[in-house]
Design brief:
heterodimer, A: 617 residues, mainly alpha, two-stranded antiparallel sheet, 2 strands, 75% helix, B: 505 residues, 73% helix, globular
Chain lengths: 617, 505
């Protein structure tokens, strides 16, 4: 098999699985689950095969899909080191999460819908990863949005899930509006949307870079990657099943925005990059604060994800797409691990998600606790763990080019260590705070093994030197560029020191502040105003709700009034009435009298003659 | 003198190519054979007669279809210029056969609900079908008139076929009187043309002035020298006679009454085949003898087209009797087709094929709708109301789906055949520069969606009532479903892949 064929297998196998499940297996949940899991395994193997066959060469094939006049839309695959790295991450993490789901969702009533959704998600996500042009990215971008919508609302009887899926979908549409306009603009500007061709064009003539296009395309990133100000949907999306949160809302889909930016990095002028930096920094710090007032274990992780997406955005904005990709990959490993760990906890404790009702799980769920700890250490950037390498690279890049960014991001790292410490100490140490936690059991093997594998990757994923030759060329290049800058060594030492200090203070401080297995939030008790301020999350949701309810709704009411009166009343009813009236007249011509008909006939002859003679002009 | 006569007869026999009209002859023989078989078959075997009719036609259809490919002398002038076979007339043979097969099938359904003579129905349908084939091939006014009268006279009988129904009798009588009137007008026009073209004092006069070719040469010569009033009057009268057949305004007045009174299969036959024959004749005339009269006829036919579209659609809006509704909407379709004819006259030659394409999609969709109507109709065939279809989708989901697709195609909804057909017509009209007519046609289509979808709405969104369950009438057999399903599938297929109909060159 050639690399292209393997890539087609990667793209089409999950689609096939989704179609088979959707059409034939809706009543056979178990079978659907096995098919979906097997498919995810197959696509991982095919992805490995494709990368191995390509051997570091660029694979780019495309096929004409639609043709409107001079405008051709193609579908194609474009495998370079960036997409190869991303594809392997997505397929491997995806496979582990599929396996984990077998255990986590075992008792679910609509297993087929769930696994069908996972398959369609894998297809759409890999479509984004492999796409060779913007239109194709957009198609799969929207499919990802659809599958995310479907999976968030998996527990469709819960009103919160229904509201969350709607919110995620609508908020994403706002970003996508800019995105689609940007694609059209790019086509108009470059005459193509092919990634490789656009890159060559811009490379030949840097004047072609256009801030407007970059800014519009950035909107897609803001929506999908939940960047400020469209971050509001991600925490709510936690209403979906936990493996879905791990796969879609932590490891892959939300990272797709960042990945997309990395694919088109050559289109970005410095002004837009600096916007992205500051959006990212703001998100990183803001989300770090918000996490302190969350009681739901998944919500804490969601804000942590928001914060880490901020780091990815900041790294990209600083001009180091390779570093951004690096953090994206390591983040995917440890955040998937953390979410699956949370899933394991939730599964073990009968769906108890309030951290203050858990506690003391270290003994009851040792593997989960240990892997969770590894995930936290990786997230906090402890030396040797994957997060250390990627986060420090971002901080160094910041320190070399933009010191305030580096300071704020280091502060963000401190916040991260603090709230993750809070989470760990409360959930795993001390004594159980509820019946559910007291009777917790370690999860079955099918859930534990993925945790262990992800834990290994969370440690080793950052050891760039051990990565295969064919992967991560961009990452290594960016790293090498940093190392060659003057003052790198000093900056490295400073960042390593400050970073280590940050996690020690964060973890230690939270240990002493919250204590082991606390049953209530100490911050809330001793500084209630501060807690409630954080809990309000700067009133973003409230502001948006206000806007929708008071401003947009009023405007919509006004338009609806116009619609009812002007369009429905006057235009539709009016014209229908007019036609009906004429119709009644016309019908009354057909009186049924044969005499009348004959006269009518002769009159018609005269009329024809009049027309022929030109009396009517 | 004898020499001359001998020469003349020799000329006749030289062009008497009987095999050229083999399908028509076979149809006539089949029609006679039906009557014979009724006489000789035992009564218990009479149910075989419709089968003989249908399968016999299928065989003839296969033969006629193979003629298109050219295994026979596929084109040329025969019988001393009485008949001119073109690719168009070859295409129309399978068309008429298909419609008469479908009419026979619907007739079987219809006759099973009535206590009427049966064999004569099929006999007349076959005769009409053969005569229509000859009609579209005729290239001489005598031939045209004879063929046309064969069609019309047989239709008089068929429309009034249901002797027990006052509506049917009334419809038959009205069709007879108005049809005779139109025949008289047509004949008068023909006579005027014959007389003036036979006048030896005029340039280009011909002893054989009923022949289309010599008439065409004569008219062209006369137009060149300033026109001739008698020619103009004669042409207008002939066009008026044809417009009666296609049910165009202002000669549409008979349509609702006759469509309502006639048995449903006959209504379908009138709506599809009779209209198609009229259009082909009109096309032959405007491309042949009346070619030089474009200046006179283009405004006339444009006016008729516009008036027909608007009148048909608007009058159909308030109509609740479904057969009248189909009649009035059929008037509107005649209007769209007239746009194609006008486009041909303005020099867009491929519009001829757009018209035929439209006729084929119209056949598929109309027979789907009429088929459902024939199955659903109660004994009182003339009184099919919109209200009868309340909750139809719950009683007959399959038929309801067929009806929806058929009506959707008639309304011109993509991806159904009717949409593509309208598109071809409008493109042809656009190329001919008929912008005003296109605007009117689009307006008409919008209005037509109102009543077509009103019917669909009645089927699907009526208020459920208790009598749904008990209502068992109008059950369809597997054969019905297969046939209707094939029609609908054809409609969809033509819409999705217009190239399956190799009509548009």
């Amino acid at each position: 098999m050639t690399a292209t064929q393997s890539l087609l297998v990667v793209l089409l196998a999950p689609l096939f699985s989704a179609v088979v499940i959707g059409l034939f297996l809706r009543r056979f949940g178990q079978l659907a689950a096995y098919i979906s899991v097997a498919t995810s395994g197959v696509i991982f193997l095919a992805a490995v095969h494709a990368v191995w066959t390509a051997g570091g060469e660029i694979v780019h094939d495309s096929w004409l899909w639609l043709s409107f006049g001079a405008f051709d839309v193609s579908m194609g695959v474009f495998l370079d080191d960036v997409s190869a790295t991303m594809m392997l991450m997505v397929t491997f993490v995806g496979f582990l999460i599929h396996v984990f789901s077998l255990g986590y969702m075992a008792k679910d009533a609509s297993l087929a819908r769930y696994f069908g959704g996972l398959s369609i998600f894998m297809c759409s996500m890999l479509g984004i990863v492999l796409a060779d042009n913007l239109v194709m990215i957009f198609v799969f971008w929207e499919l990802v949005g659809f599958s995310s919508y479907m999976l968030i609302g998996h527990y469709m009887t819960k009103p919160a899930a229904a509201a969350a899926q709607k919110k995620a979908f609508i908020v994403n549409r706002i970003g996508d509006l800019g995105f689609v306009v940007g694609i059209a603009y790019a086509y108009w500007h470059f005459g193509t949307t092919d990634l490789e061709v656009m890159g060559a064009l811009v490379g030949a003539d840097p004047n072609l870079i256009h801030a407007g296009i970059a800014a519009l395309l950035m909107c897609g990133f803001i929506g999908k990657s939940a960047q400020f100000p469209l971050h509001v949907w991600l925490p709510d999306a936690m209403a979906g099943p936990t493996p879905v949160s791990a796969l879609i809302h932590a490891a892959t889909m939300v990272a797709a925005g960042g990945y997309f930016l990395i694919r088109i990095v050559y289109l970005f002028p410095p002004e837009v990059l600096s916007i992205i930096v500051w959006l990212g920094v703001f998100g990183a710090v803001y989300a770090g604060f918000c996490a302190y007032a969350r009681r739901d274990i998944k919500q804490v992780l969601a804000y942590s994800t928001l914060s880490q997406l901020g780091y990815i955005g900041a790294a990209f904005g600083l001009g180091y797409p390779g570093i951004a990709l690096f953090h994206l990959i390591t983040h995917a490993f440890f955040k998937a691990l953390l979410f699956l760990g949370a899933g394991s906890v939730i599964h073990g404790c009968h769906h108890e998600q309030d951290i203050f009702k858990l506690g003391g799980l270290w003994r009851k769920m040792p593997v989960t606790a240990l892997t969770f700890l590894i995930g936290i250490l990786a997230l906090c950037g402890v030396y040797g763990f994957s997060g250390y390498y990627s986060k420090d690279a971002i901080l160094i890049a910041g320190g070399m080019t933009n010191v305030p960014v580096a300071v704020l991001l280091t502060f963000g790292a401190l916040l991260t260590a603090g709230y993750m410490g809070r989470l760990f100490w409360i959930v795993f140490l001390g004594k159980p705070n509820s019946e559910a936690a007291a009777h917790a059991k370690e999860s079955p093997l099918v859930m534990v093994v993925p945790l262990v594998l992800l834990a290994l990757l969370s440690i080793a994923g950052g050891w760039l030197g051990y990565w295969p030759e064919v992967l991560g060329a961009t990452i290594k290049a960016d790293k090498a560029e940093l190392i060659q800058m003057t003052g790198y060594d000093a900056m490295y030492l400073r960042v390593a020191l400050l970073g280590t200090l940050a996690w020690i203070i964060g973890l230690g401080g939270s240990f002493f502040f919250y204590g082991r297995g606390a049953s209530e939030d100490r911050l809330e008790k001793i500084a209630a105003p501060l807690y409630s301020f954080i809990n309000q999350r700067l009133w973003f949701d409230e502001t948006y709700d206000f806007y929708v309810l008071k401003v947009q709704q009023r405007f919509a009411d006004l338009l609806s009034l116009l619609d009812v009166f002007l369009i429905k009343g006057v235009l539709v009813r009016g014209s229908a009435g007019l036609v009906g009236l004429v119709g009644m007249c016309a019908r009354s011509l057909h009186v049924g009298s044969i005499h009348g008909y004959v006269y009518w006939f002769l009159a018609g002859m005269l009329l024809l003659w009049a027309v022929a003679a030109g009396i009517f002009g | 003198m004898n020499e001359l006569l001998a020469e003349f007869l020799r000329g006749y026999t030289a062009t008497n190519e009987w095999s050229a009209i083999m399908p028509e002859i076979m149809l006539a023989l089949l029609a006679l054979g039906l009557l014979v078989s009724e006489m000789f078959l035992p009564k218990a075997q009479h149910h075989l007669i419709p089968r003989i009719a249908i399968w016999g036609q299928v065989l003839i259809g296969v033969y006629a279809f193979s003629c298109i490919g050219g295994c026979l002398t596929s084109s040329g002038s025969f019988f001393s210029g009485m008949i001119l076979q073109t690719d168009v007339s070859q295409m129309m043979r399978p068309f008429f056969l298909l419609s008469s097969i479908l009419v026979c099938y619907l007739g079987r359904i219809y006759l099973s609900q009535q206590s009427l003579a049966k064999t004569e129905f099929y006999h007349l349908v076959l005769i009409i079908s053969a005569a229509m084939m000859l009609l579209v091939q005729s290239s001489n006014f005598v031939m045209l008139f004879v063929a046309l009268e064969t069609v019309t006279v047989a239709f008089y009988v068929l429309v009034g076929y249901c002797r027990t129904s006052p509506f049917s009798l009334e419809g038959g009588l009205k069709y007879l009187i108005l049809g005779s009137l139109s025949s008289a007008i047509l004949l008068f026009g023909i006579v005027l043309l014959y007389g003036v073209a036979g006048n030896p004092q005029l340039p280009g006069a011909s002893p054989d002035s009923l022949n289309f070719q010599s008439l065409q040469a004569f008219i062209a010569l006369n137009q060149f020298t300033g026109g001739n009033l008698l020619v103009n009057v004669g042409a207008i009268l002939v066009v008026a006679g044809i417009c009666f057949k296609i049910g165009a305004v202002p000669f549409q007045i008979w349509v609702p009454d006759v469509y309502q009174g006639a048995p449903t299969p006959v209504t379908a036959f009138l709506a599809v085949a009779s209209k198609a024959a009229g259009f082909i004749v009109l096309l032959v005339l405007v491309q042949g003898p009346f070619l030089a009269l474009n200046e006179l006829l283009v405004p006339v036919l444009s006016f008729i087209a516009a008036a027909t579209i608007l009148f048909g659609n608007i009058a159909a809006v308030t109509q609740r009797n479904l057969k009248r509704l189909m009649g009035l909407s059929g008037i509107a379709h005649a209007g769209y087709l007239l746009i194609g004819v006008v486009a041909v006259m303005r020099g867009v030659e491929w519009a001829v094929y757009a018209v035929i394409f439209y006729l084929v999609t119209y056949l598929l969709a109309s027979f789907a709708v009429f088929g459902v109507m024939a199955i659903t109709a109660k004994a009182d065939d003339a009184n099919q109301q919109l209200d009868d279809y309340a909750n139809y989708s719950r009683k007959q989901p399959f038929l309801s789906g067929v009806l929806t697709l058929g009506l959707g195609s008639l309304a011109g909804i993509p991806p159904l055949g009717g949409f593509i057909a309208k598109l071809f017509l409008f493109v042809a009209a656009y190329q001919a520069g008929l912008y005003g007519l296109i605007a009117i046609a689009i307006l008409g289509v919008v209005i037509s969606i109102y009543y077509y979808f009103g019917w669909i709405r009645e089927c699907y969104f009526g208020v459920p009532t208790s009598e749904i369950v008990e209502d068992t009438c109008g059950q369809s057999t597997v054969a019905d479903r297969t046939l209707l399903g094939a029609l609908v599938a054809g409609t969809v297929l033509v819409g999705v892949l217009p190239a399956v109909l190799p009509i548009i060159p």
